[in-house]
Structure formats: structure tokens, C-alpha cells
Write a structure and sequence with these properties.
The protein is an alpha+beta fold. About 45% of the residues lie in helices and about 20% in strands.
């Protein structure tokens, strides 16, 4: 996917426009973590000159969260792993204090990634919003 995208000089944002969703969701879909509709897959296929087999694969329900190993080795992805290792218990404590016993949904979820100018070096700003799902008693 990335090779064809680079060859065609199409940004993730442009492909998201073709798909009709956010750049964050669309990028996840094109990297195999979400499912495109037939119309979306065909539109991407036309834009990237993908073979029919690739267009069909974009419509298959993926095995989500499938990284090649338990601990990521890519430096950028590892920083997120490290972030959760350092701040995971803090996030859990603060979410539970604010909302009660439950989890933040990764299904009813949105994310926005932007560049934040800073004189000491631009910063990456990531805003995540997930529905709170309380645990049920039964």
C-alpha cells in the first residue's frame, strides 16, 4: 500500500477524502486495521491502480491489533507502548475516578492527529475520544 501511495504521490489525507472518512480512520483501514465498503475499496483501488485481489482484501474484516511481536520494535510505535507502560495506570486511575468502573471504547472511538508548532521543535498532538463503557453487574 505505501509503495503504491508513494508512487502515485497520494497523501493519507487525500486517500481519506477518496474514502470519505477521517485521515486517522482511513489510514488504519489502508494499513489493514479496518474494513472498507465495496465502494470505498473500489475508489481506493482506482486511485492506486490496485489489483482486484487487493481491492477485495480491503473489504475483509481484519484481525485487529496484529503486530508482528508482543513488544513493538519500530521506534515510533514503541514510544506508544512505552507511554502506556508509564502512564497506563495513571490513565486507568483517572478514568475510574471520573467515570467509575469501566473501559474506554476503541470501537466507539475517534482520533485526531495534528502538528502543533513550537519554537523548540514542532509537537505531535493526538486527541483520542472513546465512549465510556461501564462494567455491568448481573
Amino acid at each position: 500500500m505505501s509503495g503504491r501511495r508513494s508512487k502515485k504521490q497520494l497523501s493519507w489525507a487525500r486517500l481519506a477524502e477518496i474514502i470519505g472518512h477521517s485521515k486517522e480512520w482511513s489510514t488504519a483501514a489502508l494499513l489493514g486495521q479496518m474494513t472498507l465498503t465495496e465502494a470505498q475499496a473500489r475508489a481506493v483501488g482506482e486511485a492506486l491502480d490496485l489489483p482486484d485481489e487487493a481491492v477485495a482484501l480491503l473489504q475483509v474484516v481484519p484481525y485487529k491489533g496484529a503486530l508482528p511481536g508482543a513488544v513493538p520494535t519500530d521506534p515510533l510505535i514503541y514510544r506508544f507502548y512505552e507511554l502506556v507502560n508509564v502512564y497506563g495506570t495513571t490513565l486507568k486511575a483517572l478514568i475510574h475516578e471520573e467515570f467509575g468502573d469501566g473501559i474506554m471504547s476503541a470501537i466507539d472511538f475517534s482520533m485526531d492527529l495534528t502538528r502543533e508548532p513550537d519554537p523548540k521543535g514542532d509537537r505531535v498532538r493526538i486527541v483520542m475520544s472513546g465512549k465510556f463503557l461501564p462494567y455491568k453487574t448481573y
